[in-house]
């Protein structure tokens, strides 16, 4: 039976939920392409906690290491650890979610194993190919990885999160068998406090564009609505570039890809690159004063009007529910 | 210090993209080719580093058919010193691109590769890291700030949740994110000057032996269109629709 290695991403003992979407993709490969055993690897301080949490998800073995070389993310160390475990078990696949971490280090593994990589897959096709969006999602490509070993990053929003199935994986503390990199040092790692849900995990997203304009307006209009709805806050590139909101909030082709139950687009025009990041949302609401704005072409419900009037009214009335 | 900037020619990001009816590719007729926006940012960064006296020479390299010369000339019109075209009539995946750039890098004495984090056509985002793998040199991806000194480079990276600052020895690869800079337009005198700047053409097969792609596209599809929605005339109507119809709040 072939083996698939799943990269289980965690930060300080907290499982990155997108890894559970990657697990679903791994299960689909096993189901549709070739029956396979799924192994896991989890790295860094807090890994032990995370692997015990994910031990009931049907993986066979899960390898973890809290060795201090993994405390800070260094691409080559993470890549070498995956290569080590893949070689030890003769794994055919490496699968990770397409987070900035997964995107960053998987190609290093691909080179080491002479493997082809399909990035950001949104589907596992029955004919052994994978589906992935190209041209900002304006086309979908079915791609075949022609090498024996295969590397895959998974678009989290396109797969359901895997569920616990009971039982228990065999957990194995492993020691890295390589010299850690000395060429890259992490000087600073800044993740601002965010009391709202993660963009990629939120059920509801309230997103603002140039029409909202400033951080002060985000605070005055967008945050209160988001907080009412327990929603995450997103933004278009225009406001991120202007430095009004953190770049981590950018939704789109080159930002976060999201598919919440409800996406409320406020004062953003709906450029192709923005749509690429949110058009798979279940329900889209657009609030824009320009009836011709392309966002209305993808919106399920649209209101044409001034956001400075509509948004406070919406926030207030949702309050009354 | 010499810097290498890979430049991909892609379809204009503002164009409407259509899949050919038989799914064999994308309709390209009548659509302008441009420098991949992220590579334009990489060229701009190289130019700024040169103005600051940190680097001496900028070479841009593109892979593709003869027509890619237009985008290489554009990069030279922005200010790059010289260009290399690796000629190939067939498609190259990220892996083959990385293997070709690897050979170019080895022939020069470059200390830095600046390049886009992703090509906006394939959206694959692999080539910079694959290059790092092939060349066995460090990389820092998704840069929003680059500080170069004689023997190292400090890079601010845009990562999920925030940012990270890393320092790397040289030679290194830095891939650019959108916030790094705002590229200049090629000035008119630059466009004239670019016509006479050196452009070397190398056949892809003389650079790499194995021309097989590790990832092949077998078919393209058009994404399903969303079904048409409707305009509502009041906030009350919107709330009621979200509650009773869509049942999302
Ligand atoms: C390579 C590349 C990658 C990109 N990646 C991304 C990406 O990942 N994400 C992204 O978002 N963009 C991306 N872009 C940028 C994208 O092309 C657009 O420029 C951007 O999305 C526009 O942002 P916006 O809709 O907020 O601004 P605009 O297009 O200026 O739209 C503002 C909207 O607000 C409306 N408005 C103004 N005032 C009011 C008011 N008082 N009440 C109601 N409505 C109002 C206007 O009618 C208008 O429709 C990318 C571009 C490139 C070239
Ligand atoms: N055919 C090519 N010619 C030149 N550069 C390329 C080519 N393909 C990829 N690249 C470089 O690799 C980056 C990332 O591309 P990709 O990995 O395909 O998304 C691009 O921004 C370019 O700098």
Protein described:
The complex is a heterodimer of chains A (321) and B (249). In chain A, helix 7 (272-278) links the parallel strand 16 (262-266) and strand 17. By secondary structure, chain A is α/β, with parallel strands linked by helices. In chain A, helix 5 packs parallel to helix 9. Chain A contains nine helices and 18 strands. Chain A is globular and about 60 Å long. The longest helix of chain A is centred in the first third of the chain and has 15 residues, at 18-32. Chain B is an alpha/beta fold. Chain B contains seven helices and 13 strands. Chain B has helices spanning 37-51, 69-78, 94-107, 127-135, 188-194, 204-207, 235-245, and strands at residues 2-6, 9-11, 33-35, 57-64, 82-87, 110-116, 139-148, 152-159, 162-169, 172-176, 199-203, 215-221, 230-231. Chain B has a nine-stranded mixed sheet, with helices on both faces. The complex binds flavin-adenine dinucleotide and adenosine monophosphate. Flavin-adenine dinucleotide (FAD) sits between chains A (209-211, 236-238, 250-255, 267-269, 271, 273-274, 277, 288-290, 293, 306-308) and B (13, 37, 120).
Q: Number of helix segments of chain A?
A: 9
The count of strands of chain A amounts to 18
Q: Termini distance of chain A?
A: 55 Å
The biggest sheet of chain A, with number of strands, parallel, antiparallel or mixed sense and barrel status, is: 7 strands, parallel
User: Which structural class is indicated by helix and strand composition of chain B?
Assistant: alpha/beta
**Order of strands across the biggest sheet of chain B?**
9-8-7-10-6-1-4-5-11
Q: Strand sequence of the main sheet of chain A, in spatial order?
A: 7-11-6-1-4-5-12
| Beginning-to-end CA distance, first to last residue of chain B | 58 Å
Main sheet of chain B, how many strands, which sense, barrel? 9 strands, mixed
Order of helices and strands of chain A: EEEHEHEHEHEEEEEEEEHEHEHEHEH
pLDDT averaged residue by residue of chain A = 96
* Major interchain interface with per-chain residue totals: A-B, 87 and 80 residues
* Helix share bin of chain B: 25-40%
Q: Mind telling me the C-alpha Rg of chain B? A: 21 Å
Number of strand elements of chain B: 13
Helix content of chain A: 25-40%
Rg of chain A, nearest Å: 21 Å
- Which small molecules are bound? flavin-adenine dinucleotide, adenosine monophosphate
Number of helices of chain B: 7
- The fraction of residues assigned to DSSP E strands of chain B is 25-35%
Oligomeric state: heterodimer
């Amino acid at each position: 039976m072939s083996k698939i290695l799943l990269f289980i991403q965690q930060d300080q003992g907290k499982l990155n939920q997108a890894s559970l979407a990657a697990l679903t993709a791994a299960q689909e490969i096993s189901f549709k392409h070739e029956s396979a055993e799924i192994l896991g690897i989890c790295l860094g301080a807090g890994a032990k906690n995370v692997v015990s949490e994910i031990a009931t998800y049907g993986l066979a073995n899960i390898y973890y290491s809290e060795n201090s070389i993994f405390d800070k993310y260094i691409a080559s160390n993470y890549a070498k650890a995956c290569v080590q475990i893949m070689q030890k078990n003769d794994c055919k696949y490496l699968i990770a979610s397409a987070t900035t971490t997964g995107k960053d280090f998987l190609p290093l593994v691909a080179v080491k194993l002479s493997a082809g990589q399909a990035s950001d897959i949104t589907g596992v096709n029955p004919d052994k190919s994978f589906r992935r969006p190209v041209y900002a999602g304006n086309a979908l490509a079915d791609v075949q990885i022609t090498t024996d070993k295969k590397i895959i990053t998974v678009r989290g929003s396109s797969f359901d999160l895997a569920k616990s199935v009971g039982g228990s994986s065999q957990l194995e503390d492993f020691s890295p068998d390589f010299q850690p990199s000395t060429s890259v040092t992490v000087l600073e790692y800044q993740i601002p406090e965010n009391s709202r849900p993660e963009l990629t995990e939120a059920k509801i997203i309230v997103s603002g564009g140039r029409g909202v304009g400033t951080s002060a307006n985000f605070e005055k209009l967008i945050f209160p609505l988001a907080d009412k709805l327990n929603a995450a806050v997103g933004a278009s590139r225009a406001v991120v570039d202007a430095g009004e909101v953190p770049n981590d909030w950018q939704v789109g082709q080159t930002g976060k890809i999201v598919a919440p139950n409800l996406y409320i687009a406020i004062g953003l025009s709906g450029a192709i690159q923005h749509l690429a990041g949110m058009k798979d949302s279940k329900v889209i609401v657009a609030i824009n004063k320009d009836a011709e704005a392309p966002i209305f072409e993808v919106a399920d419900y649209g209101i044409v009007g001034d956001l400075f009037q509509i948004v406070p009214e919406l926030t207030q009335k949702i309050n009354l529910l | 210090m010499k810097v290498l900037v890979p430049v991909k020619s892609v379809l204009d990001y503002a164009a409407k993209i259509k899949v050919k009816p038989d799914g064999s590719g994308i309709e390209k007729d009548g659509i302008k080719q441009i420098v991949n926006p992220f590579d334009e940012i990489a060229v701009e960064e190289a130019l700024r580093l040169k103005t600051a006296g940190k680097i001496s020479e900028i070479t841009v390299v593109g892979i593709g058919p003869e027509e890619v010369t237009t985008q290489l000339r554009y990069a030279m019109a922005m200010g790059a010193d010289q260009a290399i075209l690796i000629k190939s009539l067939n498609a190259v995946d990220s892996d083959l691109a990385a293997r070709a750039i690897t050979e170019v890098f080895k022939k020069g004495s470059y200390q830095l590769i600046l390049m886009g984090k992703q090509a906006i056509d394939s959206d694959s985002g692999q080539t910079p890291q694959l290059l790092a793998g092939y060349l066995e040199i460090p990389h820092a991806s998704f840069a929003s700030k680059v500080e170069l000194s004689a023997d190292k480079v400090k890079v601010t990276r845009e990562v999920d949740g925030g940012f990270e600052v890393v320092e790397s020895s040289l030679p290194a690869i830095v891939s650019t994110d959108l916030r790094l800079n705002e590229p200049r337009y090629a000035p008119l005198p630059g466009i004239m000057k670019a016509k006479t700047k050196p452009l070397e053409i190398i056949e892809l097969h003389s650079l790499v032996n194995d021309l097989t792609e590790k990832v092949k596209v077998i078919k393209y599809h058009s994404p399903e269109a969303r079904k048409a929605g409707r305009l509502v005339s009041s906030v009350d109507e919107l709330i009621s629709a979200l509650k009773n119809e869509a049942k999302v709040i």
